[in-house]
């Protein structure tokens, strides 16, 4: 049974009960600033130029098209949007790669967990091309045991089929697994599947607002605090 405290509690993670850590990428380990800027500013600006539109009109059109597919695999698929919009999505992403950054202390947090024998599995809805771009611009890949995209399974993390496929690919005990993600619908899906310890992220975008009060899951604000608590508990 999922063991998730209420959102008002400070997360105190029982590391001794956890052997596998499942990690989202964007908004969890990486700052969501890159993605938010790209999809809400950089791409609409390029789309506006392409079609001779005002920026606000272009963004309104694109956001409407994005929202219509939110939570589906197409929503996360760069190939789909490249064809749908007739634009070089990967090329446009490369223009703003300087915004790809680890969240504060994320690298240290990954090293800290690995030093304690936790298996680190990155599971993301990001398209493989996006994963490749981000791995090339960070040292993230060197700190993980497994990196998997939901595109490999044909289902996003919001759907239960994803979790069943994941368990077949990377066998683990759901009861002794911890999952970190910034998306409420994904957290609920993980909890429904039976992941034992499920936590959200308070500030996925370093320049965005807090997610506090948006859903029922406890939120991690600072990885440094998690490590401090773990050390204080002798874990």
The proportion of residues in beta strands is: 5-15%
- Integer tally of domains: 2
Tell me the CATH architecture of the largest domain.
3-Layer(aba) Sandwich
CATH topology of the largest domain: Rossmann fold
Rg result = 18 Å
Q: Quick check: average pLDDT?
A: 93
Structural class: alpha/beta
Shape designation:
globular
Number of strands: 6
CATH class of the largest domain: Alpha Beta
Q: What is the succession of H and E elements? A: EHHHHHEHEHEHEEH
CATH homologous superfamily assignment of the largest domain: HAD superfamily/HAD-like
* DSSP helical segment count: 9
User: Low-confidence parts, pLDDT < 50 over ≥5 residues?
Assistant: 1-8
Give the termini separation: 23 Å
Spatial sequence of strands, sheet with the most strands: 3-2-1-4-5-6
Largest sheet: 6 strands, parallel
Q: Could you characterize the architecture of this molecule?
A:
It is built from nine helices and six strands, in the order E-H-H-H-H-H-E-H-E-H-E-H-E-E-H. Mean pLDDT is 93; it is low at 1-8. The protein is of the alpha/beta class. The longest helix is centred in the first third of the chain and has 19 residues, at 33-51. The chain starts with 19 loop residues before the first strand and ends with a helix. Strand 2, helix 6 and strand 3 (146-149) form a beta-alpha-beta unit. Helix content is 41%, strand content 11%. The radius of gyration is 18 Å and the shape is globular. The chain folds into two domains: 15-31 and 101-232, HAD superfamily/HAD-like (Rossmann fold, 3-Layer(aba) Sandwich); 34-98, no CATH class. Strands 3-2-1-4-5-6 form a six-stranded parallel β-sheet, with helices on both faces. Helix 1 (33-51) packs across helix 2 (55-68).
